[in-house]
């Protein structure tokens, strides 16, 4: 019997590096919104471009500015939910820009010859200051998406005891029924691996900036983390 061909290590598979790039975007995405500095140097592997949008007082619906950016109030939660993720059948880059206009920030990352792009819009409908809408692309198809800064009013503050009561295996609907809508969502779909996160940061009992994040796999809680809750 001929010897079996050894399996390729997971860290040499393309999807591993694509997930790594998405994690880089998740960590650094917020930094790009607060920086107006321009760099004279750029590389093909890591390039960030800030795109300034122009405002107009012209209310004419045929004005070029409104045609370029029809969503003047920014994307909504419904817009976020409508975006399909997938390396082969995800919503395309061109479809996104035709609906929301040019993004405020664009980024590209290349690791181990795997390239992905991210686009960020700084304004969302009904959002708080600092909220944004971001989409990650691979080969022009959406593979990740996120929305943050959603305004939510709760009946009572969420405590650390409430957080500790959350168990792996609970459904997303169980969580929302108990705590209300989250202030942010993020999702990733790569190589048939789907993950989702819900972020809660309003009406949280604790120090300034207290929040918690829940991770879901196949619609069930698979992880949780909290910061400064009491």
Automatic annotation (TrEMBL):
Q: Which organism is it from?
A: Bombilactobacillus bombi
Q: Where are the transmembrane segments?
A: 14-32
Return the annotated region ranges for Disordered. 32-108
Q: Name one Pfam family in it.
A: DUF3862
Keyword Transmembrane listed? The answer is yes
What's the protein called, per UniProt?
A: DUF3862 domain-containing protein
Write the record's keywords in alphabetical order, separated by commas. Membrane, Signal, Transmembrane, Transmembrane helix
Q: Where is the composition biased (Basic and acidic residues)?
A: 37-52, 78-87
């Amino acid at each position: 019997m001929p010897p079996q061909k050894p399996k390729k290590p997971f860290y040499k598979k393309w999807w591993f590096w694509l997930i790594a790039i998405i994690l880089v975007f998740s960590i650094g995405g917020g930094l790009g919104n607060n920086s107006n500095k321009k760099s004279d140097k750029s590389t093909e592997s890591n390039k960030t471009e800030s795109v300034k949008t122009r405002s107009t007082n012209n209310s004419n619906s045929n004005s070029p500015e409104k045609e370029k950016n029809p969503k003047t109030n920014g994307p909504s939660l419904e817009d976020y939910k409508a975006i399909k993720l997938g390396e082969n059948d995800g919503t395309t880059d061109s479809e996104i820009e035709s609906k929301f206009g040019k993004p405020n920030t664009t980024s590209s990352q290349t690791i181990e010859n795997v390239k992905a792009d991210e686009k960020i819009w700084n304004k969302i409908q009904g959002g708080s200051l600092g909220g944004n809408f971001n989409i990650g692309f691979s080969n022009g198809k959406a593979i990740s998406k996120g929305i943050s800064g959603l305004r939510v009013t709760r009946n009572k503050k969420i405590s650390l005891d409430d957080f500790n009561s959350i168990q792996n295996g609970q459904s997303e609907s169980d969580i929302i029924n108990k705590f209300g809508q989250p202030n942010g969502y993020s999702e990733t779909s790569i190589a048939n691996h789907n993950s989702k996160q819900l972020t809660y940061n309003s009406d949280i009992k604790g120090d300034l900036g207290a929040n918690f994040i829940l991770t879901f796999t196949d619609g069930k809680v698979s992880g949780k983390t909290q910061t400064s809750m009491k």
